[in-house]
């Protein structure tokens, strides 16, 4: 089921079609996995946070969220470079969902309660590719840190 997502997502289509909601969520989850793996430490806390984010975004059960994350891990491993991957996703998800995606990315980056420059650099790159300004990204980051009860620096 999700295996076909790779072919749909990376199909050479001059007018890309929006992804179905479930496919879009797995593609977004793959970006979350990529952020979590950016520092070469993909920890249990990050996997659990991805599951919670997926469950919250779409009202999934913990098992459904874990299943989507597992599919996202496979897709992320096979996805092209981050720039191309993000552009493909941007072309297929709604504009209004992009700030929510960025908030989820910041949440994943701080799941282990550590600031990591590799993860932050990845998010900044993806934010620009998604069309989110640096200022908006910083505001989203501050809100996520506040919601998580972490001090903003």
Can you offer a commentary on this structure?
The chain has 153 residues and is an all-alpha fold. The chain has a single domain, classed as TerB-like (Orthogonal Bundle). It has eight helices and no strands. The chain has helices at 3-9, 21-37, 44-58, 62-78, 82-90, 98-109, 117-130, 134-147. Helix 2 (21-37) runs antiparallel to helix 5 and helix 2 packs antiparallel against helix 7 (117-130). The model has no long low-confidence stretch (mean pLDDT 86).
Radius of gyration: 14 Å
Q: Roughly what percent helix?
A: 55-70%
Count the helices. How many?
8
Q: Report the uncertain regions.
A: none
Mean pLDDT: 86
Give the overall shape, derived from the CA principal axes.
globular
Task: Please summarize the sheet with the most strands.
Answer: none
CATH architecture: Orthogonal Bundle
What is the rounded distance between the termini? Answer: 42 Å
Order of helices and strands: HHHHHHHH
Any idea what the CATH superfamily is called? TerB-like
Organism: Paracoccus maritimus
Protein name: TerB family tellurite resistance protein
Pfam families: TerB
In short:
This protein has helices at residues 3-9, 21-37, 44-58, 62-78, 82-90, 98-109, 117-130, 134-147.
Features:
about 150 residues, mainly alpha, TerB-like, about 0% strand, TerB family tellurite resistance protein
Q: Could you outline the blueprint of secondary structure elements for this entry?
A:
Layout lengths: L2 H7 L11 H17 L6 H15 L3 H17 L3 H9 L7 H12 L7 H14 L3 H14 L6
Helix pairs in contact: 2-3, 2-4, 2-5, 2-6, 2-7, 3-4, 3-6, 5-7, 6-7, 6-8
